[in-house]
Model the fold of this input.
Amino acid sequence: MEQTLSYVIVTPYTVAKSRTGGVVARLLSRTELELVGAQIIIPNENFIRDYAASMRDQEKRGLNSAGELFAAYAERSMLPCGNRGDRLLLLLFRGENACRKLSDICGEIKTSISGQSIRDTYGDFIVDQDDDKKTIHFEPAIITPRLKELADEEMAILARHFGNTANIVSESKLEQTLVIIKPDNWYQSSQRPGTIIDMFSQAGLRIVGTKVSRLSLNQAMEFYGPVEAALKEKLAPVFGQKAKEILEREFKLPLNQDTEKALSESFGNEFAREEFCKIVEFMSGRRPESCPAGEEDKPGLVKCMILLYEGQDAVKKIRQILGPTDPLKAPGGTVRREFGSSVMVNTAHASDSAESCEREKGIVRMNENSLFSIVGEQIVAAN
Done:
């Protein structure tokens, strides 16, 4: 069956209330669709005008019975500060019947306390007790189209207004830290990525940038370059000594310190290099020695999600929630204790300093996002 694209807007109110993780967890675990793009956007007056006009036109054409309700909501609640609104999160999904599946899990617009859909849990729809046609309060939590025709129209509007905007939406001087939700969270449909985001929300920080990424081999090698040096410093002497002990035991021949040093510089360094290559393969899906020539800078074979958090003491707060590198040594309630399985497969990365964050932002090209290039391909195909 045809693979189609659709989108979900997590509304500014939902993002501001730090409900993003819960929403993402449900979307990922209950739709069996692939998340192919994510971007933080700040709506502006021109976008709201065009988006609201599209919603009203859909109702006139009989394609969206709640078009006026959503148009009024966009004009009222997506521009809370005059001509500049707060952040919304745009998520792009691909799969069979993407529009219907997303619409079903998002839920209907109604008064409900069942909690089965995302809107049941996070949205509000209150009507006048004396006039059920009069809406007193409406907060949909998320916005998504029911029909592919509408998805294509609305994604074209989003692309026109935000296709060339920067991926980082903050211009403040507050401390930032970069988080990567690693590939082990994406091998199957799971709540894990959303739950991790929800856990990080305890820090009280703002998400000012996000993207779905496949790190290239070169990106992974540069990103973890400092780790290779640390592994050689830490592991080479240990395994050089172990190699010396094994040889002495096997051949019943005492070896001197020069031999141990030579073993450390040869076998020990090779062991450390192998551990580094395993990390690179885990993060990019490619080993350095087996990557075809010319493909070192191509997107990798595994997916991750990158988020940029901002706020006072951002680095410290996120790392406290993340926990130590070794999940077995992490305190209960931390991300790595809950979801990590080893020093390498430890579910998430977070910058260890503001300086590291700046370096890492450059390597992963945090100010670039491929979401709208994917949307562009869909628009061209639709026409």
